[in-house]
Structure formats: structure tokens, C-alpha cells
Amino acid sequence: MILPSFSDYMKFSTATLATCAAIMWIGGAAIAPFGGPILDRYGRKKGILGAVVITFVGVALQTSAQNGAMFMVGRIIVGMGVGLGSIACPTYASEIAPTKYRAFMLGFYYDLWYFGGMVAALITYGSAQIESTWSWRLPSVFQAIPSILCLVLLPFIPESPRWLVSQGKEEQALKVLAITLSNGDTSDSQVLTAYNQILASIAYQKENPASQSWLAVTKTPSNRKRTVLAISVAIIGNLSGSAIASYWLGSMLSRAGVTDTYSQLQINVALNVWCLACAGAGTFLADTIGRKPLAIGSLTFAFIFLYLVGALTKLYGSSTDTSAVYGTVACIFLFQGGYSFGWTTLLVMYPPEVLSFSLRANGMAIYTFVSYAACVFAIFIMPFALESIGWKFYMVNASWDVLGVAFVAICWVETSKRSLEEIDEMFEVEMRHSTENIIQAVDIEDDKTSCVQVHTMCPSNEIRGGEKTGVPETVAKPQD
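That's the Major facilitator superfamily, general substrate transporter sequence above. Prediction below.
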């Protein structure tokens, strides 16, 4: 949208330009309610395939657009493909990855968005010199490349073992676990332990009526907490201010004193390279640092520099002092780097971890809907806010980030270095203890002498210190 040729051809006003930026996320939000049922019924791989096909259609329309309306229709369909992919891919990655690689796989899923942004920025920088509509059509064509790669690789990857178990295909699930954990050895103890945990967890969830519908996200205290934590990632992460640099970098740089189009494009390329490096570092350290400290530290660093961006824009926004301009640009880089180090990694790492299998597809659909709705709000509001209150908007946004830090510190639970089934157990144990405390308080108040015991099934048979926890050990071999 920085390209003058695009603006001249489409003749968008500020309002329609904002709509054009936001409409892709509207498409993603629109398809989100259908994503969960698609994944649960047809499987994780077919959900990814559906996303690829939808994206192809959108790219074709966007590239061949003859007017603004056609371009927007293409973008909304691309958004639907991206939205379905945002549900299917993290769900699949979280369920297929061994515990020690889960942070790496989920983290790099979103980190590579910066790689895509860097490639897109380079393509746009090169195509800006084309003196025709291909200066903006060419970047549109290149959007199809990731989908082509997915289409080529999809036949060679296995289905989620957890989804296979839920469909009664235990033997296939065991083989997939053996492939991912022990080079195909189905008798390996690590494979059998993981297999037993998955059997026990999914059997428990199937026996629990509260976990079998869309309403499951609100039916139990444990499910409500899981859903709130997943949604919090969408709201805090997408309203942190990162969308300013992602979608309105041109306006941001113009207010800082950088008005040349080519200079803005060069900064855009450099910013994506920087953010990719920061996000990659955060992904590698996610298990070492832990999810909560990573989220708190990243957002704290980000809001400090967002405050500084606001202050420098106020003081030197109309100045010709190059050192002041460089200082503002440096703060923009540090803000985005701080955000990328933690939150880019956590955006699709944390939600599928805190959601149990029975909630994961629908929960990720809700997360995606809220995430895209937040993006629409941020993208559509920001240009008007920047025009209306200027530097003060950065201050408001930074203050919101302070509240986000407080919420994470108080409410989030730590999920690093735990299997998905261990995380399930952690939530159930936490809710059991909460229930026991309430019952004990009632007993004391009523002066009861009876001992009330609450038994909660924890869906795991993990061996710890020589003792078994949770449900009894299940069979280690699949049923034919």
C-alpha cells in the first residue's frame, strides 16, 4: 500500500484504504466458526488443504483485479484461506510435534510470517520500478507460493495421532507416534507412554458430556479458563501496537520525518529482517525462559519503546533534524523487536497448548475469530487515530500494553516442557484443588465434622518419581 501506482490505480480514500487493509482479516473472521467443525470431522490435513484451495482462488481474483471492488473481494477470499489455515496449521503442529520440539514448530509457524513479509517487501521494492499495474500485481501473484509449497508437501506428512485416536484409528495413531518419536519403532517405551497418555486423555474427554459441543468452552471452570487464556493471547497480542508498523509503517515513518517512498520501502525490508531474527531467538528460548516470563518481558520491552516513539514523534515529528528521525526509527525497530521476541512466537504457541483435544479445533476457531476481529479493529482504527490524535495514540496503545503485562502475570499458567496431556492434567488438578477449597470453606462455615472428598480424574498416566498419576494405565497396544 506504500506504492503510489497502487494508490493511483485504485483511487482509495483513507477510509477505503483502511477497509482494504482490514478486509482480509474480516474474511478470516468469517470462516473461523466453520474451521473447528471442519477439522474435527475431516481431519487436520484436509483443513490445511481447504485453506490452500481457498487461497488460490483469492490470489487469482486479487491479481487480476480491474477495480477496487474486485481487489477487495480477492483479499477477503485470501483472508478466508489464511483464516482456515490459522486454525488448521497450529492445531496440527501442536498435535504432531514431540514435546521437546513443540515450541520450535509452533513458534516458527508465526516467525516465518516475518520471512514472508521480508520477501514481500523485497518483491515490492523491486516491482516499484515497473511502470505499469504489474508493480502491484506481481506481489499479489507471489502470495500463492506458500500455498503451492503446502500442496506439494501435504501428501507426505502424517495425520495428527490425536485426531486418529478420536476417530477410532488407534493402530494408525501408534504408527504416526512411532515415526515422530522413535524412527518407526512401535515398541519403544517413549512411544507407548505417549500413546497411553493420548488414549487415556481422549477417552476421558469423550466420556465427559461437557466436552462434546461448541458450548463446551463454557461448561466447566477448567474449559472456561482455557478459553479465556487462549482469547487473551489474541486480544493482547493483536492490540499491542504491532499492527501500526505492520500495516501503517508508511504513515508512521511520515510522521517521524521519513517521507521518501524508496526510503520507506528500504526500512520495511530491514524491519522484517530484524523482526525475523528477534522472533527466531525468542522461539529458540521459549522453553528455556518459559511462556509467562517470555510474554511479560517481551511486552514490557515493547511498551517502553512505544512510549518513546510517541514522545519522539511529538518532539521531533516535524523536525528536519536527521538524528531525531534516526532516533525515532530506532525506537520503532526496538519496539517491533521486543514484541517479536516474545509475542510473535507465543501467538500460535500458547493457545493450542492450553486447549484440550476436545476443545482444540473449536477453541482455535474462537481464538482465530477474536484475533482477526482485533486485527480489523486495530487496522481500521489506527489510520484515523493517527490522523486525529497523532503521537498521543502511541501513548494510549502503550498503556494498554501495561494492562496486558498485568493480566499475563496474574492469570497465565506455565506450559513449557510439558506434554499436551500433562497440561490437561495440570488444569484438572488446579480445578480440583479449587473445588476442594470451596467445599472445605463451606464445611467450616456450617461447622460440619464430616470429611468431604472430591475425586477428579486427571487424564494422564505419566510416571513421576516411581508413582503413577491420573487414570490407571491403559493398554499399550492398539485394538484391531
